[in-house]
Structure formats: structure tokens, C-alpha cells
Specification:
The chain is an alpha/beta fold. The chain is built from twelve helices and 14 strands. The longest helix is centred in the middle third of the chain and has 15 residues.
Length: 339
């Protein structure tokens, strides 16, 4: 698998009180003891942890010439990723994210724009083309946020040219530009949360309402599949569960009822589980089960990368499900573990 996206770190700040923070308000809180990572790192880590030495993972990106960038590169190498396509950018810092949380679990995220990840360009992606060419139809190309859209579009176009299976996700704010650019025509599997899916489909979705998530998911799939008949979809909806669309069937998988320590990164963990499942030749709905289990296990850790995603942890999460495919269980039993 070769992929581009954000490589960075962050911190969590727990606010006092559930009232929405005012524009000019000053409020007390505390920094939480949680390790935060950015999208590409999270997904690549879990894929590598699940599939082990027999599956190569090559991130394409940039970190700053600072101690945090060096630490992240070391951690990626420790799990077994090939970091030769992770460059060091001079004079700009490693991507940093600041997550603020309310006591009720809601919150927001602020991410630096002037970071090393923000300088990733088509030239960085083209350096990966020989690898893409060698992988061909046996490979996966992943394009996720926190690097510029132009770099992600370049990766998807090159990957499509070399017949890789292309996977992408986008933020809600990016959807207008994504649709205008035609990027979805180069995507085989698009992974979105419910709000992002609605934006991609051009339908209304009020996240503050008690509307029916299943209806929003169905309408989003109907609209997107009409426009992009070959596009497969993964749509997550937090504790409700997720839907997958393989071009013919819309499958639902309920979230696992676990003791939640932190939900940040759960969607990335879900996508990583799906990619691992697809790499093991599971169907999309079976891969969705893997995603549900990995995401369920991931949120039992306060960190955005669970430090020990072992087969035992995954099996324990499976024990809370009503049904899991035997082929899914066989894959989870081979999990390589964390760092």
C-alpha cells in the first residue's frame, strides 16, 4: 500500500463546562495525557499492525526538521513502514493538531496550515510512481486529508493509470472542490462520515438534529452511485455504526458497545480495518466488519493509535458482537500488534 496524507501530532484540552466556547471567551481546562497522531499515520499503522511483515506500507509525506518529526518517523519505522518517501521539510514545523473537548465528549479540532504536510506536492507523489508501477493491480493507493488536494489528485491519477485499487477520504469543507475537480472518478472506495457523505451527495444533513442516520446514508449512496456507478462507499456514523456499498448491496454493521476512552481517530481506524480486510481478499461487507472491530478496539485507548492492537484485544472486542464472519476472525487472529 502506498498513501499520502497528514503526518503529525497533537494535544487534547478538556474544557470546563459544556457551554459552547464564545468568540472572545477565556475558559479554564486541562491538557489530557493522550497521544495524538494524524490521518495517514493512524491508517498506515493499523494496516501494518494487522497484516504484518508480509504486507508493505509506504507513506508519502513530509515532516518538519524538528524533534516531533523525527519521533514520528522513528515510530513509523518501528512498526515496519517503509519511510523512504517521507521527506524532511526545512523551515516549516511538523503538522500539529489541537483538539478541544467538552465534558460531554463533543469538541472541535484546530490544525496548523503552515506545516510540513501542507508542503506535500505532486513532485513528492511522483517519486512514488515506480513503486505504484511495480504494485499494479495488487496494490492499494490511499489519499487522505491534511495534505493539499493537488497532491492527492496526482496520487489518485497515477494509481489509476497503474491499475491500483484507489481509496480516498475528504473533509466536508473539501467536497465542493472535490466534486468540481472530478477526483471521485479516480476513486474505487471513498470513506466518509455521515456528514461528509451528505455533502458529497449534495443533500441536506443536520448533525444537530435527531434525524435518521440510515436514511441519510441511503440517500447519499443513491445520489453518489447514480453519478459514479463504479464507486464503492464506506459511511461511518460513530456509535450508530457504519454502512458499506459495493455497487449492488448496502450493508449495515452496528458499532461495538465498548467502554470508550477516546473517539478521536476512530474513523481512521475503521478505514484501516477495511483496507486490511480487502487486502486479505475479504468482501467489502466482511472488510466492514473488520473496520468495526478495529474502530471498537481503538476507542478503548485514550490515544489515537492504540499502543497494543493485538489479536487478543481484537478478539475481546469481537466477543461483544452478535455475529462475526469466520474469515474475519481468521484475519484478526493473525494481528501483528502495536509498538
Amino acid at each position: 500500500m502506498v498513501g499520502t496524507g497528514g503526518i503529525g501530532y497533537g494535544s487534547f484540552f478538556l474544557l470546563e463546562g459544556n457551554e459552547t466556547l464564545g468568540r472572545e471567551e477565556s475558559r479554564a481546562g486541562r491538557i489530557l495525557d493522550r497521544r495524538d497522531y494524524c490521518k495517514l499515520h493512524i491508517i498506515c499503522h493499523y494496516v501494518k499492525a494487522l497484516l504484518g511483515e508480509g504486507f508493505d506500507v509506504s507513506p508519502v509525506g513530509r515532516v518538519g526538521s524538528d524533534s516531533e518529526g523525527a519521533r514520528l518517523a522513528t515510530e513509523m519505522e518501528a512498526i515496519g513502514m517503509d519511510t523512504r518517501l517521507v521527506a524532511v521539510a526545512e523551515a516549516v514545523p511538523t503538522l500539529f493538531s489541537f483538539c478541544f473537548l467538552y465534558p460531554d465528549g463533543s469538541g472541535g479540532n484546530l490544525t496548523t496550515r503552515d506545516s510540513a504536510s501542507g508542503t506535500v506536492d505532486a513532485g513528492d507523489v511522483r517519486a512514488a510512481e515506480p513503486l505504484m508501477q511495480s504494485l499494479g493491480s495488487a496494490g492499494i493507493a490511499l489519499a487522505v486529508p491534511e495534505v493539499p488536494l493537488a497532491a492527492r489528485r496526482c496520487l489518485l491519477e497515477l494509481a489509476a493509470r497503474h491499475r491500483l485499487f484507489t481509496v480516498a477520504s475528504f473533509t466536508r469543507a473539501e467536497m465542493k472542490d472535490v466534486r468540481a475537480s472530478g477526483m471521485l472518478a479516480h476513486v474505487n472506495l471513498c470513506a466518509l462520515n455521515l456528514e461528509e457523505a451528505a455533502a458529497a451527495a449534495g443533500i441536506a444533513h443536520d448533525r444537530g438534529s435527531r434525524g435518521e442516520p440510515a436514511q441519510t446514508a441511503r440517500l447519499s449512496v443513491e445520489a453518489l452511485s447514480r453519478e459514479f456507478p463504479r464507486l464503492c462507499l464506506s459511511i461511518t456514523a460513530g456509535k450508530t455504526g457504519s454502512w458499506s456499498w459495493d455497487g449492488g448491496e448496502l450493508a449495515f454493521d452496528a458499532a461495538v458497545a465498548v467502554k470508550v476512552e477516546g473517539t478521536a481517530g476512530a474513523g481512521d481506524a475503521h478505514l484501516a480495518g477495511m483496507l486490511a480486510g480487502l487486502s486479505a481478499n475479504l468482501s467489502l461487507s466482511e472488510a466492514q466488519q473488520v473496520g468495526t472491530i478495529v474502530a471498537g478496539a481503538a476507542v478503548t485507548s485514550p490515544h489515537t493509535i492504540h499502543p497494543a492492537m493485538t489479536a487478543a484485544v481484537l478478539r475481546s472486542t469481537c466477543g461483544l458482537r452478535e455475529r462475526t464472519s469466520s474469515r474475519v476472525l481468521a484475519l484478526l487472529d493473525t494481528a501483528n500488534g502495536g509498538t
